[in-house]
Amino acid sequence: MNSTTETQNNKIAFFSTQSYDKTFFKRYIPDFNIDITFLESQLNSKTVNLIKDETIVCVFVNDIVNAAVIELLAKKNIKIIALRCAGFNNVDLEAAKKNNIKVCRVPAYSPHAVAEHAMAMILTLDRKTHKAYNRVREQNFSLNGLLGFDLYGKTVGIIGTGNIGKVFAKIVKGFGCKILAFDVIIDSELENEGVVYTALDTIFKQADIISLHCPLNTNTKHLINKETLALMKDSVMIINTSRGALINTSDVIEALKTIKVGYLGIDVYEQEEKLFFKDHSGDIIQDDEIQRLMSFPNVLVTAHQAFFTNEALTQIALTTLGNIESLLLKDSIDNKLALLA
Ligand code: NAD
């Protein structure tokens, strides 16, 4: 037994718990020798104190796992940070390594869930089914204002063709679109299926629809900004199901005002950690940018729900519990993509 496992138990402090997390994780807990304390609080420097004798924390996309929090986790004797998501931009991996804390994630649960949601956003913005739904319920059967466009023949730019971007490319291909792609790694299978890898600028200049599927990191932060927006076709559609900070929000608001951006679908938002996953219906929202975004008729905001399917939640629970069990038993995980530090 190594030094990591000598001092750890099988107890997990599970942060940012939602009712559906409990449903899916509780379903599989009996299959694993693991004990979970479900906490509603987001993990941050203040809520670290909620950890009692647990040696594992389980976190989600908006938990704060920066260097300062990791130092506090180390003092609490935390040995494993288990992300129950794919993206890991909220975790300081160097700080985790320095403090001898293992970090694992769910590298792929259902790329279909997110890719299909991206397509749902495109179709909603294009064909305005959300407006039609409300309109006919009020016995207004007029079509004025619902004019859409054929997806067939349009150029779709995909930035990031990993698990999700690849599935999305195949969905888009089914609609008869021309596909341009940019990724730091070229997928030859997609190339053979007719996807054209090109420079980012070419995508910005030629695409009618741009969908973001790359991770958030120092290279991709504010990929969509004043300069890149200026290159785009007038009335371009931008879809972001990846991470909010890929888009400079104030720049995209300006571009929406001039109709440079004709449609914006975002499942993620730069400042989402203060808003998403909670009911704020009785509150005065202090974030003026999200309020401005939601005031545009051609903007669709969903609250980080792209992953939210039965299949994805099942896989998230099974993989997260499997990752933890594997780290407890053998201090490693067979799927190398799951172990980040
Ligand atoms: P992935 O790792 O399989 O694919 C990411 C792709 O992006 C890779 O092919 C990688 O080479 C590419 N990439 C890296 N840097 C790039 C750059 N600078 N420019 C262009 N491409 C670059 O990840 P995935 O499973 O496809 O997930 C993609 C992103 O989707 C995640 O990082 C996460 O942020 C987001 N996500 C969102 C939800 C949701 O519910 N909205 C759910 C899961 C994942």
TrEMBL record:
UniProt GO MF annotations = D-lactate dehydrogenase (NAD+) activity
Q: Has the keyword Iron-sulfur been applied to this entry? A: no
From the UniProt annotation, give the residues forming the signal peptide: none
What PROSITE patterns would the database entry show? D_2_HYDROXYACID_DH_1 (PS00065), D_2_HYDROXYACID_DH_2 (PS00670), D_2_HYDROXYACID_DH_3 (PS00671)
- Translocase as UniProt keyword: no
Q: Which superkingdom?
A: Bacteria
EC assignment: the record states 1.1.1.28
- Start and end of every D-isomer specific 2-hydroxyacid dehydrogenase catalytic domain? 13-335
According to the UniProt record, what class of enzyme is this? oxidoreductase
Which residues belong to any copy of the D-isomer specific 2-hydroxyacid dehydrogenase NAD-binding domain?
Answer: 119-306
Task: One Pfam family, please name it.
Answer: 2-Hacid_dh
Q: Which InterPro entries has this protein been placed in?
A: D-isomer_2_OHA_DH_cat_dom (IPR006139), D-isomer_DH_CS (IPR029753), D-isomer_DH_CS1 (IPR029752), D-isomer_DH_NAD-bd (IPR006140), D-LDH-like (IPR058205), NAD(P)-bd_dom_sf (IPR036291)
Keywords, in A-Z order: NAD, Oxidoreductase
The record's comment on protein family reads: Belongs to the D-isomer specific 2-hydroxyacid dehydrogenase family.
Q: Which PANTHER family match?
A: 2-HYDROXYACID DEHYDROGENASE HOMOLOG 1-RELATED
Q: What is this protein called?
A: 2-hydroxyacid dehydrogenase
Q: Give the originating organism.
A: Flavobacterium frigidarium
Question: What is this organism's lineage?
Answer: Bacteria, Pseudomonadati, Bacteroidota, Flavobacteriia, Flavobacteriales
